[in-house]
Amino acid sequence: MKIHHIAIICSDYEVSKKFYTEVLGLNIIREVYREARQSYKLDLAIGEHYVIELFSFPNPPERPSRPESCGLRHLAFSVDNVEKKRNELMEKGLGCEDIRIDEFTEKKFFFTTDPDNLPLEFYEN
């Protein structure tokens, strides 16, 4: 039917919380601390659409390599204007790759990373 949400485990909860809410502008739906797991769970939305669960766990293993390791390759966000979004992120101190053109759709896109080096793509509608 559709993707319900994406779960991300971060290495530094406060840094990632700030990144996803203040840099990317996602909205907080709820935040809970789960004592039994020594873990925060932060539910995030784009507008009214629930999209990401951000987790913290004690000592999570690092991602083996990027971007060609097994598992999630990258997370892609749809935007109306790639140039504008890239400029906004760079003004907030985020390093962004150059804008490229998808050879199949001829749409513009670029990559950056979150605080744990998870590749993030911004793809123009």
UniProtKB/TrEMBL annotation:
Record flagged with keyword Metal-binding: yes
GO MF annotations, alphabetized: metal ion binding
NCBIfam families reported for this sequence: PRK11478.1 (NF008551)
Transmembrane stretches, start-end: none
The protein, known as: VOC domain-containing protein
InterPro entries: Fosfomycin_Res_Enzymes (IPR051332), Glyas_Bleomycin-R_OHBP_Dase (IPR029068), Glyas_Fos-R_dOase_dom (IPR004360), VOC_core (IPR037523), YwkD-like_dom (IPR037478)
Keyword entries, A-Z: Metal-binding
Record carries keyword Nucleotidyltransferase: no
Residue ranges annotated for the VOC domain, each copy included: 2-125
